[in-house]
Amino acid sequence: MSDRRLRELGWYPELEPMLAEGRKRGLQAARVMAASRTFSTLLAGDGRQLKSRIPGRLHHLARRGGLLPVVGDWVLHRPGRPGREGVVDAVLPRKSAIVRQAPGRAVPQVICANVDTVLIVTGLDQDYNPRRIERYLALVGGSGAEAVVVLNKMELCRDLERCLNEVRNLGCPAVLPVSALRGEGLDALAPWLRKGMTLAMLGSSGAGKSTLANRLLGEERQVVGRLSERDGKGQHTTTQREMLVLPGGALLIDNPGMREIQLLQETTTLEEAFPDIVELGRACRFTDCRHHREPDCQVKEAVASGRLDEVRYQNFLKLQQELESREKIR
Questions:
Q1: Contact present, 201 and 213 (Cβ < 8 Å)
Q2: Among 130, 110, 96, 299, CA closest to 198
Q3: Whole-model pTM above 0.90?
Q4: Which residues are annotated as a binding site for GTP?
Q5: Which structural domains are found in the chain, ordered by start?
Q6: Model confidence over 130-189: pLDDT tens digits?
Q7: pLDDT for 16-52, tens place per residue?
Q8: Residues forming the annotated binding site for Zn(2+)?
Q9: Residues annotated as binding site?
């Protein structure tokens, strides 16, 4: 298998020494397309999809801080004989990971790994919520990946320019209005769709992620759900995470809609979600100012003078308190 083929699947040079050692033991490198507790679907450099078992040894190591395969991971595996599955031997170090607190449990949940760009997809209908976008930006901020906000269903928006400015003011440099249903605005995604680049889509159910995935694939592969007429909310049409290979060679990780975005202190940064507040905070009297009750706080002064939106400031305090509370529980 040539290194060029691996690079086309997102391989990065830092993993070369581990692959060289693995080859001495008859192991091969592959990328995780889908994973359950016991099995994974791997994408080999020659394009084959291979079923590979996740052994109990890796679960045992995970209890001591080791890694279990998630979608997007690079692994070393031992190929199976004809008609039999192979075995995952090791999960290689990640260059990025999207991590949240597992729903209902105070433990980390790795959503996907080795992502270059996260597409935060939100619909310009009942789904539109700048406060939720801020939360997604905080989630992505500590991941090692770049965030791009995709405002889908622009055909439904009565004041597109207002929404664009509102989201740009959240601090995300890339905000793209599109209509996945009509295929409009998708050319703007081209810089992030180069061969070997990995993208992950995050967003609520009904935001149009599956419709967007189908547009990028050029075929109706992902099931598209209908919105509830009562509340406009979508159903989970994507039921498991999977990595898809796009026609141009980029790789797209489609994720089920997220009802909960619980943040973790060690994997979250508010700097990407609130760059304006971070910049104002540099002029505060105290270097460790929390912008709450401290005197001579430039952030509070900006709120009082109208230079900083009160709702945005309150959401910052809410997320900051949430992260600090979780840190105390651990």
A1: yes
A2: 96
A3: no
A4: 203-211
A5: 3-91 (2.40.50.140), 97-254 (3.40.50.300), 274-329 (1.10.40.50)
A6: 988 988 888 888 788 999 999 999 999 999 999 999 999 888 889 999 999 999 999 999
A7: 999 999 999 999 999 999 999 999 999 998 889 999 9
A8: 284, 289, 291, 297
A9: 203-211, 284, 289, 291, 297
